[in-house]
């Protein structure tokens, strides 16, 4: 049975962003640095997509190279979905952009954000025509999440790779990978590393 139509890797800077095309709605995972909106639109065009084809945006964690154009996309009608573990972190990178001269950064408008409890994530994705769930996977940051599809694919942002877990000796990171293994993850898509099979 087809669980979702397909996933597309969209890289227009230094961050691997992903579009999951569900049977009903499309979700974007991560953005890149502020100011890269034109690059993003050009890349969408190469895939015969428009920003209007993106229904929801999830940010794996709120570092500047993952959320830089989130507010721009909100203004184009994309709904930013913030998990309960992320609510207190969505402005943590604002100060970095403020220090930049000519920054094109727009801080996220909290009133336009859609809040989602992690316990409701499976239902939310199902309504998009995507079989999967969202897990809280801290280790790189406290607010890190992973989007896990029942097909065995996981989108983990900047989580440190599985084959390096023992190097970090970090119980929080080890626990996050345990959760991903228990969710039967087989292929891991990172924001800055090549895919990993576990
Ligand atoms: Zn990061």
UniProtKB/TrEMBL annotation:
Superkingdom per UniProt: Bacteria
Pfam families assigned to the protein according to its UniProt record, in alphabetical order: Lactamase_B
Domain Metallo-beta-lactamase, chain residue ranges per copy: 14-192
InterPro entries linked to this entry: Metallo-B-lactamas, NDM-1-like, RibonucZ/Hydroxyglut_hydro
Stored PANTHER family: METALLO BETA-LACTAMASE SUPERFAMILY LIPOPROTEIN, METALLO-BETA-LACTAMASE DOMAIN-CONTAINING
Protein name (Swiss-Prot/TrEMBL): MBL fold metallo-hydrolase
Species name: Limosilactobacillus walteri
